[in-house]
Amino acid sequence: MTKNPMNTFTAASASITALLTFQAHADTITVCQSGCDHTSINAAIAAADDGDVIQLSAEIYTEGATIDTLGKAIEIRGVLDADDRPTSILEGATFNGTVLEIRANADRVRLNGLLIRNGNSGYQGGGILCVDAAIEMDHCVIEDCTAPYGGGIHLNHTSDGPFAEPSVLRNSTFQRNWSQHWCETFGRPVPDGSQRTPAPNLIEDCSFLQSGSYHGAFLASHTILRRCRVAGGSGTLANAGILGSGGRAIDCVFEQNVGGAVLGSVSAVEYVDVVIEHCLFRANGGTQILYPGGADVLADRNYFCGSMAPFAGGVTDGGGNIIDPSCIPADCNENGVEDLVEILLDPEVIDTDADWTPDECQLPPCPSDLNENGIVEAGDLGILIGFWGTEGGSSGDADLNGDGIVDAGDLGPLLGAWGLCP
Fold it and tell me: What is the pLDDT of residues 134-174, one digit of tens each?
């Protein structure tokens, strides 16, 4: 069959049109004091389409008003220094209000490499207010922000608003934020009339530092906190935070949080399906995990370091929880990071047997290496012969077969292990 050249032309034109359309919606719009497309972030957002990138320079942006994404699925991208710290600063000190507001977005708004500071809201979200929308945040810092609800960030959904996809926050820090109720809010309520469980938000490799509020550092429902550090917080009720329905804290560190002896470091009040798993608690005030409302909190394989009470109320002990009153710091690989912290916060550190010691510090034994130089060779044979006819020394190390005397029976194990140790 002969091809119709017009059909071929039409198909090619459609492909080119689709490509150009995609490119038109993936523009990069630059913002800086001089020489860029815009000098204002809000002006750049007004000119942007869904999919566009607002590229900031390494400077301080003083908009004098809230930065509003206008319901657009865009990315606001800053500049990171050599240590992956953000150098593009959104300054909120010149006005009263939220620094960055995101509402009613069908797709995630992406935030990368931003430092948001000095926001001051009279209601919700001093640094970021995200309602009926979702964000994807990476390498951001939110600091010195205040609000009655969600000093640094208030991320939630209204009962009648659109139900956005879950948010994902990675490699970000919330520090020195203050709130009357809870410093950071992460919510995923089930829409009215729906029986489905919402997919959870993910907060991964983030830090919550020196937060202050009545309820502690965060309120997180239907949210997973993984490899996060919560430290230096203060609160009159819950000094580190509250996990709501469907909340998870996995491989997290809670330390040096003070005040709030009633609910302790992590609490879940009148909520269901909460799991606190493989976390470290140390140098905190009061009971560490408390759930007075029932038995829907599972505490499993956690390490309680120090003399504080581990958990009370309706908390279910899942087994494997370790209570260590002495809590002597250990750094088996001598890299300057404590083993307990490294196991939790560094995904490359493996602890296969879950004994809170990195696997790299537990190499297979090499008993025939009597001089401990990493190889079984003539030097070890000389040591064995030197103990011939004895019990093998004060600790019996040279008695390789354990029969109480060093003799020909010990030659076999030594010769069998000849060469490099595993």
Answer: 999 999 999 999 999 999 999 988 766 666 789 999 999 99
Nearest to 159 by CA among 122, 111, 192: 192
**Residues near 267 by beta carbon (within 8 Å), at least 6 away in sequence:** 216, 238, 241, 242, 243, 289, 290, 291
pLDDT digits (tens, 9 = 90+) for 58-69: 999 999 999 999
Q: Using alpha carbons only, give the angle 386, 392, 393 rounded to the nearest 5 degrees.
A: 90
Distance, CA of 59 to CA of 410 (rounded, Å): 71
Q: pTM score, two decimals?
A: 0.79
CB proximity list for 336: less than 8 A, separation 6 or greater: none
**Three-state secondary-structure class, residue 255:** strand
For 39-87, strand residue ranges (E) read 53-56, 60-61, 67-68, 75-77
Tokens at residue 281, please? Answer: 């608690």
Residues 6+ apart with CB under 8 A from 310: 281, 287, 288, 289, 299, 302, 304, 321, 323
Token pair 């491989």 is found at 251
- Side-chain-facing half-sphere of 369: CA atoms under 13 Å: 12
| Contacting residues for 234 by C-beta, under 8 A, at least 6 apart | 211, 212, 257, 258, 259, 260
Start-to-end C-alpha separation, the chain: 69
Closest CA to 200 of 245, 147, 242, 267: 245
* Positions of E strands within 123-233: 128-131, 135-138, 141-143, 146-147, 153-156, 168-170, 173-175, 178-179, 184-186, 201-204, 207-209, 218-220, 223-226, 229-231
Phi/psi for 59 (5° steps) reads -155, 175
Question: How is residue 330 written in tokens?
Answer: 């250990």
CA distances (Å), origin 357, targets 230, 255, 347, 354, 386: 22, 19, 14, 8, 35
Report the C-alpha gap between 297 and 321 in whole angstroms.
14
Distances, alpha carbon 362 to alpha carbons 138, 139, 357, in Å: 34, 34, 8
Cα distance between residue 321 and residue 289, in whole Å = 12
Q: Which amino acid is at 99?
A: V
CA distance 82 to 103: 33
Run of H or E residues at 46: helix 41-47
Closest CA to 29 of 14, 49, 11: 49
